[in-house]
Specification:
about 30% helix; globular; binds NADP nicotinamide-adenine-dinucleotide phosphate; binds 2-aminobenzene-1,4-dicarboxylic acid; six-stranded mixed β-sheet; six-stranded parallel β-sheet; single chain; alpha/beta
Length: about 350
Amino acid sequence: MNKLFNVAVAGATGAVGNQMIACLQERDFPIKNLKLLATARSAGRKLRFKGKEIPVEELTEESFSEVDIGIFSAGGATSQKYAPVAARDGCVVIDNSAAWRMDPDVPLVVPEVNPHAVGQYPNKGIIANPNCSTIQMVVALAPIHRMAGIKRIVVSTYQAVSGTGKKAIDELYDQTKAMLNFLEPEKKVYPHRIAFNCLPHIDVFLENGYTKEEMKMVNETRKILEDDSIGITATTIRVPVFFSHSESINVETRDPITADEVRTLLEDAPGVTVVDDPSKNLYPMPIDAAGRDDTFVGRIRADESVPNGINLWVVSDNIRKGAATNAVQIAEILANDYLGK
Ligand code: NAP
Ligand code: 12T
């Protein structure tokens, strides 16, 4: 199979778009022509791909007529408007925003968990990439769900600022620098200072008292695991970390499963690396996960307060597996199993 594809990256100049270009290069995705799209502000800027300088073009309704696969990470409003336009022109869209994830006609895919769902792409010509916090959680939990049946999940996240984009990375850097120089830190992106702080607030607040990020974890997890009976409650926290989200996860299973069984199961699970040796102070940390594609799991232990409870600590690079790597893995399935034939 040596078919080559015309690929477009929408939002190419952003934190996710940049990583998307890097992942396409690293994984040697079969590209004939790569088109880089952003706003008119960025048009003409050049970005490197495989040693070549590619000029950024303004994203318009005409951008997709020659494109086979369009990877979108230019915000929900852009996806809402342009994904159907691209699909109408025969381009298959892999969308990183929240715009299409819960549409029943749009598959929501984590390749280690539900690769078969890619086959539903002809419904709308759109495949959704899940939320970053959801992706790493289901990579770690799907094997446990298959083995012992998950009844309930209680998760708290510790999320990096890079999830909010380039401006938030700058904000943490600038505020930290200001604080260490006894200057007044400026707030532009978050409602409160993020340097040396934690904010129990990611995305917007909803009527039910949860944030939208928390409800994405609830609804997307059920859709990907194809099981609406799982009880899920999430608390999502922004912490002053640049890259990699961490999650404290408590699961209750229907069938008994020991911590050792979970450790063995996860050691063999695709996309998972177990780092779990407390006697040597070994456990997953954001500084080790950043720049890697795996989901790292440690602190695996029984929850002694309930019959079938397990606690886990799960860390992954939110821009790689949480966004770009997962999207390129979806593109690989699409290319190999569907478009390449
Ligand atoms: P970012 O660093 O702020 O970059 C935003 C990108 O979108 C830039 O390339 C920007 O172009 C482009 N853009 C914005 N409005 C546009 C428009 N109207 N038309 C064309 N291009 C437009 O943000 P990011 O962190 O890369 O995130 C981008 C999006 O990816 C988010 O909004 C979200 O939907 C999604 N995302 C998903 C996950 C996930 O969990 N899977 C994680 C993070 C982000 P300019 O440089 O020209 O302004
Ligand atoms: N607000 O893809 O701010 O729905 O970390 C991902 C990350 C939305 C999303 C964040 C967000 C998404 C964030």
